[in-house]
Structures are given as structure tokens and as C-alpha cells.
Write a structure and sequence with these properties.
The chain has about 350 residues and is mainly β. It has 3 helices and 18 strands. The chain has a 5-stranded mixed β-sheet, with no helix packed on it. The chain has a 5-stranded mixed β-sheet with strand order 10-12-17-14-15, with no helix packed on it. Strands 2-9-4-7 form a 4-stranded antiparallel β-sheet, with no helix packed on it.
């Protein structure tokens, strides 16, 4: 029994000895870890598993955070100088300007504007247009429009000539259907433009009514001359054509067209000859089928031209009716001789 008690006493002494060994080894272990940390750094130590040793200084750094700030991305196609400059803020989008729409081959539709014809300095009243009226005037930046008012008392062939300009000038013919002495949206009949090298011309068959001619500045200041001619009132009336007739005339800027009227009571073979010209002259034959006393476009029967080297001639078998013959200047001033032969 005595020996058993001694043995138990010796076992109790071994436990404190083990604790002394462990406690004494801690400084050695700490020194060793410090040496390893100094030699390899924290990354190797933090990756070791220390289940029995709970220390905070072995925590690994957060790998989700980049070690160094990322390099700035350089856009493709940009130089280093371009990337170093600050980008300017984007330009705000501008509202698109609406453009007029076209319908088929029609001109661009625009909102019509009523013309102001109340200025007495730009307004000329002609009254009833008989024969020819001529005006010399000017349009400019300061006064861009001039208006000419006239009336027709019966169906008439009316011609307007615009020339003597040094720059483009526009001309329009309107019928004052509501008689308000103003140009309204639906009253335009025809337009023309004059250039330094070319006259502007309008030819219309006008019924008895009131009319307005507008002359308008386009690009630069310019003088101009406008002629308003009632050709019907200037027609030479031959009457009943019963025998041969000869007429001589002269065509110029002041007398560009001459009209002749005749009628037949029986069907006749008629020869019309135009000769003795020094420059080209045109001749046209019309029949007044609707009896309105003027020439309509659908009533033209024939045409011819005379030259300095060749006479112009029309041969027709004509039924009883009223006829018009038009002699017109084509290029330069010239005399002419017109023969009407019955065969």
C-alpha cells in the first residue's frame, strides 16, 4: 500500500513540469515566428492554419481590394495628350428646324402672306388698260415692291414686259376678284423674272375685271422698265377679206407684237406671206372658234418664221369664221411686209 501511494505522488509532480515546459517554449516560439515573419513576410504565415493559436496579427490582408490603384483606361484611338485633357461636357441636342414638305412635283408649300399695297409711294393706278402703258422705276433694299393697278373692260389679250434691269427682278400678275385692292392668297395668275440678259414676259387672256401687277426686288438694287399692253385694243381690223391685202410694219422694243384680225364669209384658200425682214420675225394664225374676241391657246392653227434670207409662209383652206394673225419680234428691231392672198 505504501509503494502505491508514492507512485501516485510522483504522477502529480509531472503535470506542473509539462506546464513549465510549454510556458518556457512560448518565448522561443514567438522568437521563431518573428524570424519567419521577417524572412517571408505576413502572407506565408497568414495562410497557415492555427486552430489552437488564436492571434489577430496573422490575419491576411483583404484580397478583394486592389493593392495599387488601377491604371486609367486609355480610349482606343486617343493619344496621350488627348487623354490628359479633360473631356468637355456633351453639347445638348438642338431642336431640328422643320422643313417645308413637298407634294409630288408641286412647289414647296409655304404659308401665303397677304401683300401690303397700301403705301401710296409704291402704288400706281392705271385705270382701264387700253393700248400700251410704260413705267420706268427702281426696286431696292429700301423699297422692295411696286404695284400697278389696272382694269379690263372686255376680254383682252394682255402682255406684260419687264426689262432694262441690272439684276434679277420678279414680276407677278394677280386678279383682284374681291376688289379689296390687295393681293390675296388665291389671286395669282402668272409670274416671270427679268435678268440683265433676258426680259421677263407674261401673256394672258384677261376677262373684264381688276388686276394688280407686282414688281419685286430679288437680290440687288435695280432699275427696271415695265410695259403693260392690251394687244386686243391695238388690233388692226381688216374686216371681211375679199381680195389681196398688203401691210407694212415695224417691230421694236416699243412695238414688239402686232395683231391683225379678218373674217371670211366663204371657204377660201388663203396664203399668208411674211417677208422683207432684217431679223427673225414670227407669224401665228388663230381662229376665234368660241367667239370671245380674243386668242386662246387651243385656237392656234399654224405658224411660220421669216428670216432675212427667207420669207415665212402659211397656206390654209379656211372656213367662214373670224381669224387673228400675230406678227412678233424675235430678236432685233426690223421692218416687215405682210401679204394676204386669196387663191
Amino acid at each position: 500500500m505504501t509503494s502505491g501511494g508514492s507512485s501516485g505522488s510522483g504522477g502529480n509532480k509531472g503535470v506542473p513540469l509539462l506546464g513549465k515546459v510549454i510556458i518556457g517554449s512560448i518565448p522561443v516560439l514567438a522568437l521563431s515566428i518573428s524570424f519567419v515573419q521577417l524572412w517571408t513576410g505576413d502572407e506565408l504565415l497568414c495562410k497557415l492554419t492555427w486552430d489552437w493559436l488564436k492571434v489577430d496579427f496573422f490575419k491576411c490582408p483583404d484580397e478583394t481590394k486592389p493593392k495599387n490603384p488601377p491604371e486609367p483606361e486609355i480610349e482606343k484611338g486617343l493619344t496621350d495628350t488627348e487623354t490628359s485633357q479633360e473631356k468637355s461636357p456633351p453639347t445638348p441636342p438642338t431642336e431640328p428646324i422643320p422643313t417645308p414638305t413637298k407634294t409630288g412635283n408641286n412647289p414647296i408649300k409655304q404659308t401665303p402672306v397677304k401683300s401690303d399695297t397700301s403705301n401710296s409711294n409704291t402704288k400706281f393706278s392705271i385705270g382701264v388698260l387700253n393700248g400700251k402703258k410704260e413705267y420706268n422705276d427702281r426696286v431696292s433694299y429700301d423699297i422692295q415692291e411696286k404695284y400697278y393697278f389696272f382694269s379690263i373692260d372686255k376680254n383682252s389679250n394682255v402682255k406684260l414686259y419687264l426689262d432694262g434691269v441690272t439684276s434679277e427682278v420678279w414680276m407677278g400678275l394677280y386678279v383682284d376678284t374681291n376688289r379689296n385692292d390687295s393681293i390675296d392668297n388665291d389671286e395669282r395668275l402668272d409670274t416671270a423674272r427679268a435678268y440683265s440678259s433676258q426680259s421677263g414676259r407674261i401673256s394672258q387672256n384677261l376677262a373684264a375685271d381688276r388686276y394688280i401687277v407686282k414688281v419685286q426686288f430679288e437680290n440687288k438694287n435695280s432699275d427696271y422698265t415695265i410695259q403693260l399692253v392690251n394687244q386686243t385694243s391695238l388690233t388692226k381690223n381688216i374686216g371681211l377679206l375679199q381680195d389681196n391685202k398688203i401691210y407694212k410694219g415695224f417691230l421694236s422694243r416699243d412695238n414688239r407684237v402686232e395683231y391683225y384680225q379678218f373674217n371670211l364669209s366663204d371657204t377660201k384658200d388663203v396664203r399668208l406671206s411674211l417677208s422683207d425682214v432684217t431679223s427673225q420675225v414670227g407669224m401665228e394664225l388663230y381662229v376665234d372658234t368660241n367667239g370671245n374676241g380674243v386668242m386662246d391657246g387651243s385656237e392656234r392653227l399654224d405658224s411660220a418664221s421669216a428670216y432675212s434670207s427667207q420669207a415665212g409662209e402659211i397656206r390654209r383652206n379656211l372656213a367662214p369664221d373670224n381669224y387673228f394673225l400675230v406678227i412678233s419680234k424675235e430678236q432685233h428691231n426690223t421692218e416687215y411686209t405682210l401679204n394676204l392672198f386669196l387663191q
